Amino acid sequence: MRTPAINAALLPGSATPCLHFTLALTEGALARLSVDALRAIFAHELGHIYRGHAGSRREVGQTDKEREADRFAVDLLRKLEPRYPGACLALAEVLTLLTEAPGRAWLSTHPSPERRAQEARAGCARAREPSESRIREA
Ligand SMILES: [Zn+2]
What we know:
With 138 residues, this protein is mostly helical. It has helices spanning 27-32, 35-50, 62-80, 87-100, 113-127; strands spanning 8-12, 21-25. Helix 2 (35-50) crosses helix 3 and helix 3 packs parallel to helix 5. The model has no long low-confidence stretch (mean pLDDT 81). Bound molecules: zinc ion (ZN). Zinc ion is lined by residues 44, 48, 66, 69, 110.
């Protein structure tokens, strides 16, 4: 998407029958965000797909969808930590960054980014306890 704003969106897939969605990023996101931040955004958007939010008619409020996607992202990013140290905290960092950025487009449909960042940080801290694993192996 050609805009300097930082934004990401899930769009319906169209290229092949196997492609159920398209993940769109703005040029602003690609130009201004670190690889770690982009990875965190991908993880969040994948959470929407994994939880069935894309094109879903489930009666789940937007706040709950965002929380579910964030929790999925935390669990997924935790698993990447051995290879990408700090991957999990990058989610909290990108949420914090976006609360301060002008043009909060990515957040316009998302609830309370400050609180989400706080919850992501707490989730990442829990991640360091080896006894816990909340994500299902898939
Ligand atoms: Zn979202």
